[in-house]
Amino acid sequence: MELLKGKDNVEKAKSLEVAEDAREEQWKHPSFVSDLFTGKIQWGMIFPFPEQSADDKKIGDDYLKKLEPFLKNNLDADAVDRTGLIPDSVMKGLAELGCFGMKIPKEYGGLGFSQINYNRAVAMVASHCGSTAVLLSAHQSIGVPQPLKMFGTPEQKKKYLPLFSKGAVSAFALTEPEVGSDPAKMSTTATPTEDGNHYLINGKKLWCTNGTIADVLVVMAKTPPKIVKGKEKTQITAFIVEKGMPGFEVLHRCSFMGLKGIQNGLLEFKNVKVPKENIILGLGQGLKLALVTLNTGRLTVPAACTAMAKKSLVIARDWSNKRVQWGAPIGQHEAVTAKISMMAAMTFAMDSVTWLTSAMADQGKADIRLEAAMAKLFCTEASWRIADDSVQIRGGRGYETADSLKGRGEEPIPVERFMRDCRINLIIEGTSEIMRLFIAREAMDPHLRRIFPIMSPKTPLGQKLSMAVSAFAFYTFWYPRQWMYLSRWRNHTKVSGAIRTHIRFIEKTSHKLARELFHAMAIHQEGLEKRQQLLARFVNIGTDLFAMAASCSRAAHLLGQTPSDRGPEELADLFCKEATLRIKREFHAQRENDDKMIYKIGRKMLEGKYQWLETGIVR
Ligand SMILES: Cc1cc2nc3c(=O)[nH]c(=O)nc-3n(C[C@H](O)[C@H](O)[C@H](O)COP(=O)(O)OP(=O)(O)OC[C@H]3O[C@@H](n4cnc5c(N)ncnc54)[C@H](O)[C@@H]3O)c2cc1C
After folding, report:
1. Cβ neighbours for 216, distance < 8 A, ≥ 6 positions apart
2. Are residues 224 and 161 in the same domain?
3. According to the model, what pLDDT value does residue 296 have?
4. Is 429 a catalytic residue?
């Protein structure tokens, strides 16, 4: 940690300390992505593509057969967007379908879905109505069911999980007006009562999705600090809070650019008395709980983004064939054809990343914290670009609301709603910037573990020496292997020549990435933490490599199933070729860039040095 801390101010150091304390230090299972950053590609982890079992697939298929007609016949997504309300009849119907208990084990009355089937269901909802998808996802991916399933006591599970199975709604309350990405400064407190049996929660929580209608919430609050080796340690603890508990109040329902139907609010807690039995995982374990919950919880976002991308692609394809301008369907003008082509390749990559990561979560054999973060980062950014392209392809109609289109007799195609709805995905459950920092921190972890204790003044001299010897021995072998290596590809599955070319590139580039990250750590040392532009490029390269690997694996799998259809291979090939170009550009930019100038000008702008630029506008 100190290695990352540098000479920064106390506040930042405290935030880093809280983040580091919440980190899962152990890697109990192998991680494909973590290894990728060290030049060790474990192909066997993703080849052959992990397929959903036939039994599990049937459960999902049967469920989607019920869910799809329900959505089509009962949920008017444009009306939700217009009125800001998901009708009671829809809430009731969703509850009857078991939507609020999809992830809850059967013994508690839930559907006991695998991650894949749960994601398939939320994805289908997202392709139709973003607000309803977010209602279900906030409830189950981050709300009370998931942390209780993972960490709840038998009593907590018995008391709460059956309620959700019947349709009770839950929410997750971490963010505060002054606390977003950096929870260390949280001001909501939970003070133990004199007898120690209860805690009194005081504070405000902002933007809590489902918060205005939730029956039960997970609330993060600061409990009294722990003294460790004479130093105060911030303790953030997760509490189960019921809406009926005196002192809990919804102060305001927030409304947003999109997702008009979500019930998201500013909540106040005034001396809300919560029994100590309502603590989840333990005192001071709140942030760890949030991080671990999000490792799988976060996977719903890429699934939803992928479904929205597919729907946008269908709309763009249909319109490009139908709309004739300049004597030809617009899809035949190369600028539009190229957009459609890239949308399809990108959607294939999103699909591959989403279902690979979901399958890994179900198999439980891999540590997917980095895969999930990359899936979130990659799919949210890709879906935003796809939404943008689909608006562009629809032209003026892309900017017109579905209601307005309908009002003048045209088909109410909601691409502008999709665009508004999908923008938030780059912000919630970890912003893109925070995801990049998180991935970069974990990517450097194998080196930090070896080097940090040697540099730390706290490590006793004897231990330092023995660690230095073992680090020297490790790097004597590891570093040359990043230049001269044998392929780890063992024909895990049959692949075509095109895919094999990409596999070779991924392997070669993984070694290059490992070397360059190592060099950057050696050159910048503790200063690397501040070089966010440089770190982001490493993460972008790693993310594209992961998406390439997922796409290759899935293409090989689909080709194996239907050899006559080369479509998956074509899309994977195009995605990989474009990703290869991006990766080469990113490596080039690591050596030749304007980072310093960009930073300097940004700082000057922040200091108000370019105010002459700000003329001619309404102030
Ligand atoms: C529709 C919606 C639903 C939400 N649902 C929930 C919910 O259910 N529960 C809940 O607890 N919260 C929820 N949130 C809050 C959401 O998680 C936060 O908005 C998010 O964590 C970012 O926090 P912030 O908005 O305060 O941004 P800030 O943390 O203030 O960040 C602002 C910008 O600065 C960047 N930034 C911040 N720190 C750094 C850094 N160290 N390095 C580089 N860049 C940085 C961010 O990436 C971002 O671009 C919701 C928000 C919205 C709008």
Report:
1. 144, 160, 163, 164, 168, 170, 171, 240, 241, 242, 243
2. no
3. 85
4. yes
